[in-house]
């Protein structure tokens, strides 16, 4: 077993352990992937101050994100099909998150259903809603999330149309692996993954199958998913969801000051500054570069969390210094889960905690609540 000391180590191991089609599904951006690359690269442009002569023996990393206690200013992003990266993946990440003390967001497009995940954990989870043409199905998802005491509703705004990822098309991405020679050879090198998948009861999209109209099996689900992406999603829908959901309502995928103002005017509790990890609008700004504009426009009215490109404790520090209250982790969590399951996700959180603590200390800071733009310099 290789020694894991950073997120990049998880990525390398993940690549070895999970079928190529699913690695490519996660490790890709849309079209030219320029935004996908900028998300990580732009973090490096923020130089962290180095301070000395300050007592740093007591460093506080804990915070609250959308009303929920978080041991680190971190929560897990909604990621579809986690259960294909590692058997029962959603349950494993939710368990690791609960044990460590950070929030977990379950995607609409999960393999394990929200009932499965809520039944396997005691801390409340957040539920992410994809708005689909069948609005009755959306309202039913909200009712189910309420019945399970989910503690926040995260509505994804940046997928009214699908950004194309070339690799998924070339790989013929599907949760049913086609028995081509290439796939058989690939699977032969990932026997542990295949064995776990063969044994798990969680094999299809648990939130959808048996709940959406006319979706009873995988074939009908694939047709349904392709047809249900809804280009008519507008702010009016948010007013409806606001009436249906009385807990924290958070909009994900806000990358424009004008949109941030509309969201704040609608009375949402929070926004996630996110470009979907570079999977939607290719050519858009990185999240970290655009974040200060949104903080300046609405930071006094809504809580702001950011994601896209966070790969280290140093990145978490940079995001907080740029005005975010916390960060969501997408791929970093996928790498850790795919590489080492639940233990990997726990190790990931431990690594990030240590990196953030060290970065805080060497910057002469003792509380994450005190970070501001004086802690970083633009190069
Ligand atoms: C494989 C994968 C699947 C994703 N699925 C969803 C999803 O179901 N719902 C959603 O709102 N965002 C989804 N996202 C976007 C993430 O929530 C998050 O915005 C993004 O991963 C952040 O960028 P990062 O991966 O660089 O951390 C997905 C991202 C990846 C990589």
Number of domains: 1
Q: Which stretches of 5+ consecutive residues score pLDDT under 50?
A: none
Name the CATH architecture: Alpha-Beta Barrel
Discrete helix count: 16
What proportion of the residues form beta strands (DSSP E)? 5-15%
Helix-residue proportion:
40-55%
How many strand elements?
A: 12
SSE run: HHHEEEEHHEHEHEHHHHHEHEHEHEHE
N-to-C span:
38 Å
The spatial strand order of the largest sheet comes to 4-11-10-9-8-7-6-5
- Main sheet: strands, sense, barrel: 8 strands, parallel
Mean pLDDT: 96
Q: What Rg do the Cα atoms give?
A: 20 Å
Strands, helices and their partners?
Layout: H1 7-17, H2 20-26, H3 34-44, E1 46-48, E2 63-65, E3 68-70, E4 74-76, H4 82-85, H5 89-100, E5 105-106, H6 114-120, E6 126-130, H7 135-147, E7 152-156, H8 166-171, H9 181-188, H10 191-199, H11 218-228, H12 235-244, E8 249-252, H13 257-265, E9 270-273, H14 287-298, E10 303-306, H15 313-321, E11 326-329, H16 331-362, E12 376-378
Parallel strand pairs: 4-11, 5-6, 6-7, 7-8, 8-9, 9-10, 10-11
Antiparallel strand pairs: 1-12, 2-3
Helix pairs in contact: 1-16, 5-6, 5-16, 13-14, 15-16
This protein binds flavin mononucleotide.
Flavin mononucleotide is lined by residues 25-26, 39, 77-80, 107, 109, 128, 156, 252, 274, 276-277, 279, 307-310, 329-331, 334.
